[in-house]
Design brief:
By secondary structure, this protein is of the alpha+beta class. It has nine helices and five strands. It folds into two domains: 101 residues, Ribosomal protein S4/S9, N-terminal domain (Ribosomal Protein S4 Delta 41, Chain A, domain 1), CATH 1.10.1050; 89 residues, RNA-binding S4 domain (Structural Genomics Hypothetical 15.5 Kd Protein In mrcA-pckA Intergenic Region, Chain A). It has a five-stranded antiparallel β-sheet.
């Protein structure tokens, strides 16, 4: 599957906000936003035209795609599924993105970024209800447990990520048993559980054009 392989710090600079794509680096002074808080490219520091209408909607969609590490075609499929589902389309879309296994692994603190979580899942370090699952886009369900495989619990990257994540806590719809490297999906995430600065209505308006 295609995947963005460029410098992720450029993505944060393009959106003019921290997307937390590079783990611990995002919390340090080396963060690109802290050092160069303007868009990348030779014209990044120039005062550009005011973004309105379609431009605002497009930037919101791009921001959400980059936060969750989803490419355009997959994002469109998520939106179509959300649009066909009952409930508010924008909220359903965010719920589906939050329920991705790679996002859950990151939210539980088993990885320092969603990209690293995606790699852990693909390499077979993660189990769902005791069974290995290597699909990052797997949609977790209420009541399921997400566990680090026994043989992977001494992995220094997982240990470092878990230690650094202990201070930030986990979302209310998840619970973490750090000692046993196990997390549980208590319930499906509600809009209030998603603390990211996202205006999902702009994305709905964009795809409704």
């Amino acid at each position: 599957m295609a995947r963005y392989t460029g410098a992720v710090c450029r993505l944060c600079r393009r959106e003019r906000m921290k997307l937390f794509l590079k783990g611990e680096r995002c919390f340090k002074e080396k963060c690109a936003i802290e050092r160069r808080g303007y868009p990348p490219g030779q014209h990044g520091q120039r005062r550009g035209r005011k973004v309105v209408g379609y431009g605002i909607q497009l930037r919101e969609k791009q921001k959400v795609k980059r936060i969750y590490g989803v490419l355009e075609r997959q994002f469109r499929l998520y939106f179509k599924d959300a649009d066909r589902s009952k409930g508010i389309t924008g909220e359903t879309l965010l719920q589906m993105l939050e329920r991705r296994l790679d996002n859950v692994v990151y939210s539980l603190g088993f990885a320092s970024s969603r990209a690293q979580a995606r790699q852990f899942v693909r390499h077979g370090h993660i189990q769902i209800d005791g069974r290995k699952t290597s699909i990052p886009s797997y949609q977790v369900r209420a009541g399921q447990s997400v566990t680090v495989r026994e043989a992977s619990r001494k992995n220094p990257q997982i240990l470092a990520a878990l230690e650094s994540a202990m201070g930030r806590g986990v979302p209310e719809w998840l619970t973490l048993d750090a000692e046993n490297f196990t997390g549980k999906v208590q319930a499906l995430p509600s809009r209030e559980d998603i603390k990211l600065p996202i205006q999902e209505q702009l994305i709905v308006e964009l795809y409704s054009r």
